TrEMBL record:
It comes from Seleniivibrio woodruffii. It comes from the Bacteria. Keywords: Membrane, Transmembrane, Transmembrane helix. InterPro entries: YgaP-like_TM (IPR021309). Residues 6-57 form the Inner membrane protein YgaP-like transmembrane domain. The chain crosses the membrane at residues 7-24, 30-52. This is Inner membrane protein YgaP-like transmembrane domain-containing protein.
Amino acid sequence: MSIKDILRLVPGIMILLSIGLFLATDQKWWLALAAFVGLNLLQSAFTKWCLLEDILRKAGIREI
Protein backbone atom coordinates (compact mmCIF):
# COMPACT_ATOMS: atom_id res chain seq x y z
CA MET A 1 0.00 0.00 0.00
CA SER A 2 1.41 3.40 -0.97
CA ILE A 3 1.35 6.71 0.89
CA LYS A 4 -1.45 7.99 -1.35
CA ASP A 5 -3.59 4.96 -0.50
CA ILE A 6 -2.97 5.35 3.23
CA LEU A 7 -3.69 9.11 3.08
CA ARG A 8 -7.17 8.26 1.79
CA LEU A 9 -7.73 5.27 4.06
CA VAL A 10 -6.84 6.74 7.47
CA PRO A 11 -9.13 9.82 7.36
CA GLY A 12 -12.01 7.70 6.09
CA ILE A 13 -11.58 5.23 8.92
CA MET A 14 -11.23 8.00 11.51
CA ILE A 15 -14.40 9.77 10.38
CA LEU A 16 -16.46 6.56 10.23
CA LEU A 17 -15.09 5.47 13.61
CA SER A 18 -15.92 8.80 15.25
CA ILE A 19 -19.46 8.80 13.85
CA GLY A 20 -19.94 5.18 14.94
CA LEU A 21 -18.70 5.98 18.45
CA PHE A 22 -20.99 9.00 18.59
CA LEU A 23 -23.98 6.88 17.64
CA ALA A 24 -23.00 4.13 20.10
CA THR A 25 -22.31 6.41 23.08
CA ASP A 26 -24.32 9.55 22.22
CA GLN A 27 -21.39 11.70 23.34
CA LYS A 28 -21.03 14.72 21.11
CA TRP A 29 -17.28 14.91 21.67
CA TRP A 30 -16.77 12.08 19.18
CA LEU A 31 -17.98 14.44 16.45
CA ALA A 32 -15.04 16.70 17.34
CA LEU A 33 -12.72 13.98 16.04
CA ALA A 34 -14.56 13.95 12.70
CA ALA A 35 -14.38 17.76 12.58
CA PHE A 36 -10.64 17.67 13.35
CA VAL A 37 -9.98 15.20 10.55
CA GLY A 38 -12.06 17.30 8.15
CA LEU A 39 -10.22 20.48 9.12
CA ASN A 40 -6.88 18.73 8.66
CA LEU A 41 -7.91 17.63 5.15
CA LEU A 42 -8.99 21.18 4.34
CA GLN A 43 -5.74 22.63 5.70
CA SER A 44 -3.62 20.17 3.73
CA ALA A 45 -5.45 21.06 0.52
CA PHE A 46 -4.42 24.71 0.87
CA THR A 47 -0.93 24.33 2.34
CA LYS A 48 0.12 21.14 0.52
CA TRP A 49 1.47 19.81 3.86
CA CYS A 50 0.16 16.83 5.80
CA LEU A 51 1.63 15.55 9.06
CA LEU A 52 0.52 11.98 8.34
CA GLU A 53 2.38 12.07 5.03
CA ASP A 54 5.59 13.11 6.79
CA ILE A 55 5.15 10.35 9.37
CA LEU A 56 4.58 7.74 6.66
CA ARG A 57 7.68 8.86 4.74
CA LYS A 58 9.82 8.59 7.86
CA ALA A 59 8.35 5.14 8.48
CA GLY A 60 9.65 4.07 5.07
CA ILE A 61 6.33 3.64 3.24
CA ARG A 62 6.78 3.76 -0.53
CA GLU A 63 5.62 6.85 -2.43
CA ILE A 64 4.10 5.24 -5.54
